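Dear colleagues,

As part of the handover before I leave the project, I'm documenting each prediction I ran so the next person doesn't have to rerun anything. This entry is a single chain, and its sequence is reproduced below.
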Amino acid sequence: MSEAQRSALNALLFRTGDQSRDIVLVLATNRPGDLDAAITDRIDEVIEFPLPGEEERFQLLKLYLNNYMLKDDDKSSPWSTLLKKQPKKIHVRDISDDLLRDAARKIDGFSGREIAKLMASVQAAVYGSPDCILNPQLFSEVVEYKIAEHQQRMKLASEAAA
């Protein structure tokens, strides 16, 4: 633990040692097992937010598809177009709800953050393609790659815990 981390932990422990009306502390983590016992001992209430179900994963895929690839940013002023390079326009072809639902089924176990990162990877793959077109084949390739990456990460985490 670095000196800065130790100082932060000591300050937290000092402030949370007694009841106080002046301080409310909210902790959020995807990795509760990594929390120090001195921290978890001071948590009065725990609220679990489970991983998204299939319908939530589908809705998140649609949301990020819209935010990362379909949405036009028309908020730019004429000056901003002169001063900064505009990203290439992404053309989305044949990405159906059925394709997104199939992907939502396949990414069981992904957190909301992992789904956001998956769709950012899809966007990066599209920008890396010569024609800047998102088609079902490219989408499926990225999904399969991210599933394999997720499985490898889970395997490493379980080996580290053992």
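The two ends are 22 Å apart (CA to CA). The chain is about 55% helix and 0% strand.

All the best with the project,
I.
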